[in-house]
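Standup notes
- DV: blocked on the single-chain target, sequence here:
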Amino acid sequence: MNQLPWGGHIAADMRKFEITPGRCVWEFTVRIGLRPTAGVTDEQVRALRERVDEALDDHVNGRYRLPDYAQIHVRADFDATDTHTDVTVRPEAVPGERSDQRTWLVNESGRVLAGQITRYAGFVHDFGLSADSAPPDTRR
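- DV (later): unblocked, structure below
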């Protein structure tokens, strides 16, 4: 795992697929081990995983392209045994506390957590996934 200057980490598998001649998709897969703390239920972890997958599909996948016009697809693999990183999942936070790459709050929005995953994939741009922004629609 590489350390970024601002304290973030990069770790992902990358694969390039040619969908049709001349049209490619780069898939970035981040293998994440979720480590719930006391007070976090299996049902809450399942719901968190679903929110993350939905947010990646709604806000990243199919919306952005690399300079070579290849489409970006980011995927979270929560079932891998050989993970890139472990993330602690904690119960509700105190007011003002937020999730980061290594600690997720169990009721955090899928958008915010998807933003953390894009950072593991190496993207500095948050794809409009911060709490205060909305992504542009650049689908083609």
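- Follow-up: Residues 42-59 form the longest helix (18 residues).
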